[in-house]
Amino acid sequence: MATQETPSDRIVLLQGTLDVLILQTLIFRKEHGQGIARAIQRTSGEVLLVDHGSLYPALQRLEKKGWVCAFWGTSENNRRARYYELTPLGRTQLVTETDRWTRLVEAMGRVLGLESS
Q: Which of 20, 35, 47, 70 is the Cys-Cys partner for 31 at CB 3.0 to 4.6 Å?
């Protein structure tokens, strides 16, 4: 079986990273799984590539936590697709996760000497 090769300039997502990326992607509109993956890739400047083997378990996990809700609809190419939408609880969680990531990025910048004094 052939495997899809990933360019070396792409970044592998850390555990928990995908959750916040999905929540952020759904902040303004509902989207199906493939659309979420494309949006993350596009908004990251083609650096982040979401593997479908990671995406769908993450969506199920977020749905189980009540951060997203899912429903069946018709995609832009007239196919049946499962759409995901951010819930009010998911919006609250996105704020929490964004704050955590901001603190992490700032701390990493200090450790790596990237922060300007």
A: 35
For residue 88, the domain's CATH number is 1.10.10.10
- Nearest Cα neighbor of 71 from 80, 59, 58, 83 is 83
Tell me, yes or no, whether 58 lies in a domain: yes
Per-residue pLDDT tens over the stretch 42-81: 999 999 989 889 999 999 999 999 999 999 999 888 999 9
* Domain assignment of residue 116, yes or no: no
- pTM of the shown model: 0.83
Q: Yes or no: say if 67 and 89 are a contact pair by the CB < 8 Å rule.
A: yes
Per the structure block, which two tokens stand in for 62?
């977020």
| Number of helices (H), then strands (E), in the chain | 4, 3
> What is the distance, to the nearest Å, from the Cα of residue 45 to the centroid of all Cα atoms in its chain?
14
Number of domains comprising the chain: 1
Distance (Å, whole) CA 68 – CA 58: 11
Rounded CA separation 40/35 (Å): 9
